[in-house]
Design goal:
Blueprint: E1 6-11, H1 17-30, E2 35-39, H2 45-55, H3 64-88, E3 92-96, H4 99-109, H5 115-124, E4 132-137, H6 140-147, H7 161-177, E5 182-186, H8 191-202
Parallel strand pairs: 1-3, 1-4, 2-3, 4-5
Helix pairs in contact: 1-8, 2-3, 3-5, 4-7
Bound molecules: thymidine-5'-phosphate.
Thymidine-5'-phosphate binds near residues 41, 71, 105 and 106.
Amino acid sequence: MNSGRFITLEGTEGAGKSTAAAAIADWIRQRGIELLITREPGGTELGEKLRALLLAPAIDAPVPKAELLMMFAARVQHIERVIQPALDQGKWVLCDRFTDASFAYQGGGRGLGAQSIEVIEQWAHPDLQPDLTLLFDLPVDQGLKRAARRSGPDRFEQEKLDFFSAVRDAYHQRMQRHPTRIKRVDASMNETDVLSQAKLMLEPLFVD
Ligand code: TMP
């Protein structure tokens, strides 16, 4: 039985996705639904260790292919240990980033392209796709301005405008490819309006 729902949140830096995640989780729980909130890379002990390795600025930083495989290593652990068991128990899972992020950051940002990622995705999780993905979208320069207010940028946040433009383009391509699953949230609006848009898009999930 799999009556749970799998919802993922995506976006470029400074899109307000993580703030929205907490509010969305509260709102779903208020409707009497058991929901697990989690994130990628991360969500398991191993995944969080991989996250630390992936995000820390380093001289011997992972090359793009290594970076991609580390993301998927964390993901497979997360799916088998956390996500799938929760869905099988009928819980809803709200995940801050998932495989679309690999298409965007490694496929687009790092230039690995979509084809090799499709092959890995097909092997790593052939039977699992989100029921709904909210893409928190805003112009890259706006997002970077917001993100700059945070201290101590991680390895991805240290990237330049070109990188994030390629990430955003790749997200748009994903949205064109999966128009039913991936819905755009205009993240340039204020927090309240962003949340209202997200709720509207989530509403159909409550219907059996
Ligand atoms: P966060 O900013 O949402 O916490 O995510 C951490 C970073 O990891 C973010 O810069 C995007 C990056 N990332 C990838 O590059 N590929 C992936 O597959 C995932 C899940 C995240």
